Amino acid sequence: MNRKLLLVVIILVLVAMPATVIFAGTYRSPNQDIVCEVEGNCYDDQGLTIGTDDSSGECKIVQVMYLGWSGKDIPDSPQWESASLEITAYAKAINEEKPPTFEVYKVLAEWDENTTRDPGYSDSLLASTVDNLKDNKVRFESKELGNYFWERREDKEATVAVVIKDCNNKATFVDHEGSDKQDAVNDEADLMFHVATSVSLSHVDKESSNFSWFALAAIVALIVFVSGILLRKIKTA
Questions:
Q1: In a domain, 8, yes or no
Q2: Using alpha carbons only, how large is the chain's radius of gyration in Å?
Q3: Does some domain include residue 137?
Q4: CB count, 10 Å around CB of 69?
Q5: How many other β-carbons are positioned within 10 Å of the β-carbon of residue 17?
Q6: Residues 104 and 87 sit within 8 Å (Cβ to Cβ)
Q7: Looking at the domain assignment, is residue 13 inside a domain?
Q8: What contacts 200, CB < 8 A, 6 or more positions away?
Q9: Which of 39, 46, 68, 149 could form a disulfide with 159 if both were Cys (CB 3.0 to 4.6 A apart)?
Q10: 31-59: pLDDT as tens digits
Q11: Does the residue 229 lie in any domain?
């Protein structure tokens, strides 16, 4: 009897699994991106270079990268626990022995790719990570970042500012909107939302906005197969 009950519980767990793994996917290339000199001009026709400088005797952030996604493309359910952002660099000048800190902030003013002056970023830190860019990628993840995008899901745009801290470090990231112009790399940004299980098997592409139905079908087929075996065991037990 206990054996049969255990098999029934296993089947129920397998059937419930899709409900926990379907959501939380990757939103690829941002709708828009620019790089700005701090309190200066903005550019949209080059790689997104961010960096610091201490030539004045004081370590200063001199370039900021702004990334924006359309709020209407962000799902309104279920509510996620956190978000992660991964971006790719194709050029870098990093002190690998003392890796710099990368930070993501809220943006102060609205902007688009025609913006010519730095919109500025607030002191509201959304995520931070230390990375030497050995794999040419930097990845952020935090609940604050998830909450920020949750609050912006009905807005026209959900935008963030990315900076590099610690002096004499510089990295040039992929210009996502113009990635076809880059010869070195065409990697797109990954913006991912995570549910409480922090498990994600599907992804949503910006262009198609469809779930990975092939992966889901494979999961369902596996569940049906395993459930059939377990049911036969119950009948013969």
A1: no
A2: 22
A3: yes
A4: 23
A5: 17
A6: no
A7: no
A8: 21, 23, 24, 25, 26, 192, 194
A9: 68
A10: 888 999 999 999 876 678 898 988 888 88
A11: no
